Amino acid sequence: MNTKFGPSRKPGVKKIADKTGFSPATVSLVLNNKGTFTEETKHAIRQAYTELSHDLAVSEGKPFVRLLIEETIAVHNDSYNGEILRAIENECRLLGFEVMLNFVRAGDEPLSWLENISGLILLGGGLITDEIVQELRGYAVPMVLVDNYTHTGDGLSVHSDHYGAGYLATEYLIRNGHTHIGFISGPAKYKPLIDRYAGYCAALRENGLTLVTDYITPNFDRKYIKGYYEMKYLLELPRRPTAVFAVSDRSAFGALQALQDAGLTPGRDIELIGCDNISGDQEIKRRIPTVHIPRAEVGQMAARFLLEAMRGNELSGKVIIPGRLVLPETSEAAAGGAQDNAVTAASGGSESGQHFS
Length: 357
Fold this sequence. Notes:
This protein has 357 residues and is an alpha/beta fold. It contains twelve helices and twelve strands. Helix 1 crosses helix 2 and helix 4 runs parallel beside helix 11.
């Protein structure tokens, strides 16, 4: 799927050759990832491609930004990523440029994403790997990673404090007197979920509790019942945990269904906490705590930082926005302002109040 606003053209080989001094044949080979050339030659040609693409976008009206997200994510039915996408699009329009949405598929040619754009926003992980990010950086296009980052720290990334969210959720259960705490895991290809697991481990360690590997569920990865079979796995252990941290609210929803099917009551038989504070079954939201992930703020910040990069201000590093604990019957709107029901997670990152004008 490729949703576009406006025309889409790419600079011709001859124009790139004229700009760089290389032959059209060399330019064509480099852009098609063929032949053997020095890194300097490839960088010069790719840089010219990016600059000419940007010039085309500007000459034809508003600059365009391409937003990439993994194809397997059901954007329209995904409360988590859907809110980030809406925030990015709204902020981009306010800042004066349009957004083109592309779903990333296995085997895609990254060069095709650079046609007629002024910048890139890469949302989430999965198929958007460190290798793809590194290849795109070779074209020197302004770029921001959202809810993702590279292990080498290249470029600029904006995301919530997922490590802090995992720590906050687990510490909440510990404060409630639990020492046997299970963890419902998620796919390892998504760094936020791995970071939440790391926060879970850190909270156990810093409170003198032992990490029990049996309490870490396998990821059964059933698309529409995430968390259901993971909770059943925990319930079947010889010594089941007294509390469970589900890596996401979607997993918590499935886990709660498993508890109900087993005739157990959350909060009495087993305490359950989720993470994300997404919209969903309102009966569930009234019954279990979660950690609010500031998705709208992440999207807004990403758009504003990209604008700075497009203005020529090269930025790098991580911008991390902390989350908050949300207790049962606390609405998502209240999570942004009710201090009696919200505890700010510790974070070394930037607050969402830091904006560019």
